[in-house]
Amino acid sequence: MADTVLHEGELWHEFHRVVNMSSRELADWLRTCSADPEAEDLPDQAGPPTGHQVLRILSKRRTDLTPDDLEVMRRVVRQVHLGRRGNRESVAGRTGWRHRLMSLGHDPLKPS
Asked: The whole model's pTM is what?
């Protein structure tokens, strides 16, 4: 499915299927993953830009999506599918793998 073009309705459902973290979980994760010993000047901007784009999309209704939102959704779906490909057991213990996916709103260790 990662290589097929999804139409808007299919994309909406697939995006919400692969983004299995709630808005609150994702916002908390983005603050946590970029935290360092020094205080952050702008904690609400912590984390990668794609994570913030996912947060904005999660707060929207399907009818309010922009073309940019749709592109972000396609990219996130593609990246999650690519990140989940292969033998999950051998990579599940690698925190970098999990953290990259979590920054997109997908926790691979969360029960489906």
From this structure: 0.80
